[in-house]
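User: Hello, beginner here. Can you help me understand these amino acid letters and fold codes? It all follows right here:
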Amino acid sequence: MCPTSTGSLYVFSMRACSTLVAFLAVGLSAAQSFALSSPSPIPGAAGNGLADDTSAIQSAINQLPPGATLNFGDTTFTYLISSTLVLAPGVNYTGTATILMKSSANPGTPMMVLNYGRTDNTTITGLTLNASGVGGGVLISVNGLWYTPARNVTIANVIFRNTRAHPTGAGDDAIYDPVGLQNSVIAGNSFFNCGGGINVADAANLYITNNRFDTITQDDAIFLVFPANPFSYGNGITISGNTGRNLSRMAIELWSPVPSPTVVAPVISNNVFSGWSSNTNADTGFGISVMAGIGALVQNNSLSGLPIGLGIELGVPNSTVQYNNVSGFGLGLAMYNTHDSQIQNNTFYGQSTAAICFSSGPTGSHNNIMVSGNTISEPQRMGIWINAPDWNGTSIIGNFITRTGGLYPADNYSSFLAINPWPNPAVSVTNNYVAQIASNPPAGFSFTGISINGSSGSNYGSHYDNNQIKSNSYFPAGVGIAVNEPGAASGATFTQNLMENLVYASNGGSSAPLSTSTNRVVNCQVIGPLFQTF
């Protein structure tokens, strides 16, 4: 029959009424959904925000067949609940009404759950879920096992408010799935004053797009974890177009407790996050962290944080990080096991330690990385910091690094290194532009373009070519290339470099480079040991 009547509750089967499929897919307006005669669209519910509507709503849910739509009505309705609503699978829950958790409910009580094995083909759209600080929002695949993921779940244009401010577990987050979520969409939602945002395990073909986060007080805004449950996962992940402010931890995190090569080519793009809160600390105040899988694409994101933590943390190989704008943080980009990756055309501003860092841990390889075309402005201590020995075959090419001596109070007695490499043979540092741009930097400010570290011969076969290092000060200032140990530059090549308006074109220990041809020194007070053959 179409429709079928169950008491005073009208439900509509999409399977029985094919003519209604298009309407049910997008959610019906109050007029289109055959409004009922009761005071609210939910039979027996007051919808006035005062009477407890838990039983009436649960009764309505229990009568729904697969393919039905339960419309809570428009913004004039507020449904007060005191315990968790157990949703039926295969149903569209819609409307623009508010569901409000009673503030006296037991702490940790979630608003809605889809129990394990009863999750698929469910849609939640348009509603406002106000947890009143009690517990979580929507929990998926809970109270069961871990062998089967949830599939075809859509949560769209929902407003989540006031989930538990200090979660005792991930189940207090606004959206939580501990098992798996596949072929699903979380899009266009808003999260206000929530302890945690989206927390999903072992995702596949999951789109998290165009969500808004405003004040996340403890956990991540978006957290995908990969605990290796016994089903296929990790492909088709897209996190795009999300925005956020006033975060206490990470904006976006992909993490696995075990190596997860099955997480392949996640896309994290066009997200904008800013304004980390004063509760943030250096260990957790990250913009984007990708520490699971292979082949990540991180592009066109804008991140603006405190002078602590990491803008982008990358610990997966064969990845591309490009066209991102990172302002603030302690490190703009920290790399671990990122061999065979491309770091290109990003903009970094004002990091308190370094813009780009090849980190010494966790373990992994930095071989064959291309760091090219990045614009680095005003990092306090270092521009590109290679703090790891394993970067064979890596190229640092065509980066633009500028620093204003005197910008930071500590500049009166501190130093800046534009490119600071760990000793390593067969690397290339070429075509980079490095400039100290203050006209009158403090006398105690030390500026160095390239600092070559290591023992004698440790950089044999490396190339330092076509770099331009200069100071724009009234008088020569700083050092072009510093060789920190005798012989450290032996066996390397130095060609077509330009050293301009510096105190030292080079200084430090003498070396025997393979070539120092075609270099130019302009208005430098001392040529130094490296370029004595000019």
Observations:
- The chain is about 5% helix and 40% strand.
- Helices lie at 21-26, 54-62.
- The first strand starts at residue 4 and ends at 6.
- The two ends are 94 Å apart (CA to CA).
